[in-house]
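Database export, one record per block. Field names are fixed; values are copied verbatim from the stored entry.
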Amino acid sequence: MRKRMIIPMCALSLLLIGVAAADDQNRVRASLTGPAISGEKPSGTARSVTRDGQSRFTVQVDDVNLPDGTMLTVVLVHEGNRMRMGEMQLSQGSAELERRLQDGGQQDGGQQPQAGDTLLVVEGGMHRLAGVFF
């Protein structure tokens, strides 16, 4: 009886491995930190989830002690190259950027983040937050 169960179980295992490999999914994230601004330390997160050639890229920052309406530029550093990913506007110390990238990550000058890439949040030429994707 045991021998009859081994073959179907092996076939099922191989099928599941094949499905996982065909999924083509990649996830990276980064914790963002920066120096205190007027006594308040900013923080944030960045995530990129890629599945079947389409990527969702999000950045969220909190506790950024700058005036409402301040524009923050999100910059990805990939293999030493700086790429502007977009801008977000502060409201009550928080801001969020969301982008969808297609075809391997290249769209509108954007690059799909990879492990080891650095993300910078810049305001007026100053790096306000930074983090490394893992």
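Remark 1: The radius of gyration is 20 Å.
Remark 2: Residues 24-132 form a domain with the Immunoglobulin-like fold (CATH 2.60.40).
End of record.
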